[in-house]
């Protein structure tokens, strides 16, 4: 029997090649004073994407400003700086342009700018988010995080812990999916962000809070990623393939927003905290080691996932079990490095990793995982990860 659930509709989503340079038409109805702030990152600026969007808006009478003081993963410090920029400029619309870090920074900064508190005040929902005063538009340049459609912002606090905030105040007003923005993404990031989206979809489909709407979006996301990620790595300028991956990432984000993440994200966040690993690679490596245990629970949906991952029809139990190997094979096929030694982690770091996995900010994801992992399970998962 399906558990009770609430499923919020996604923001307005528009897909099309070249939409980013025709953004003025989409903004005009919701940005009447034509004052816009773009929040991006240095990589997007260096690739020329921020300048192209700004130039297109300026040609159509918009006054634009840019904030791109972002370094790596989203941080409370960068959110606070962006919020101050919003408070001083008072734009009527804020555009998040980039990967998950830029999008989460934009979402959270718009909310934080509406009050006097800093970002860390709202970590783990210690206080409700203020109502924002500016419209929020999302333009992802990677096909991975799905942050454009989630009501969550993940960031690093001043103690270097990965924490989060959640609320309807973080939902975008408009999402623009332009596959042309993803053409410059390097192969390694294409692989890592694509697997990030796949893990989102798999966890959303199998989580304790999962439901049919999340599974519909999640299963389609897994299908699109499985059939297109390797192609995008081999043919990075294939706009059709890039568009399918971008669609998949947004679908996975919708699924994740509806059902939540699981243990792979607890472990992945811990790896990010202690080793600074890319989030997509971290959660993929984590799911690889916990998949066999997860597949013993929520067997039917794991069997459906296994079929999408190329497992041949068999009994439901056999397919679910084989799905774990199929995921690992796919992860390695797209070139993910499974060794943590280049990240400075060794088997001796097991207890330190376990401690961070059990930190307060990760416990909601533990509770949502389909398989209820014991402390011994967690130690085994950590040991397997660190032994690669």
Describe the protein's architecture and organization.
This protein has 388 residues and is α/β, with parallel strands linked by helices. The protein folds into two domains: 12-182, Rossmann fold (3-Layer(aba) Sandwich); 187-386, Dehydroquinate synthase-like - alpha domain (Dehydroquinate synthase-like, alpha domain). It is 50% helix and 10% strand. It has 15 helices and eight strands. The chain has helices spanning 23-27, 42-46, 49-59, 76-89, 100-112, 187-206, 212-234, 239-259, 263-275, 279-294, 299-308, 316-333, 350-357, 363-368, 375-386, and strands at residues 12-15, 35-39, 63-67, 93-98, 135-140, 152-156, 162-166, 174-177. The strands form two sheets. The protein has a six-stranded parallel beta sheet, with helices on both faces. A two-stranded antiparallel sheet has the order 6-7. Strand 6 (152-156) and strand 7 form a beta hairpin. Helix 6 (187-206) runs antiparallel to helix 7 (212-234), helix 7 runs antiparallel to helix 8 and helix 13 (350-357) packs across helix 15. It is globular, with a radius of gyration of 20 Å. It starts with 11 loop residues before the first strand and ends with a helix.
Kindly list the characteristics that best describe this protein.
single chain; 388 residues; alpha/beta; Rossmann fold; Dehydroquinate synthase-like, alpha domain; 2 domains; 6-stranded parallel beta sheet; two-stranded antiparallel ribbon; 8 strands; 50% helix; globular
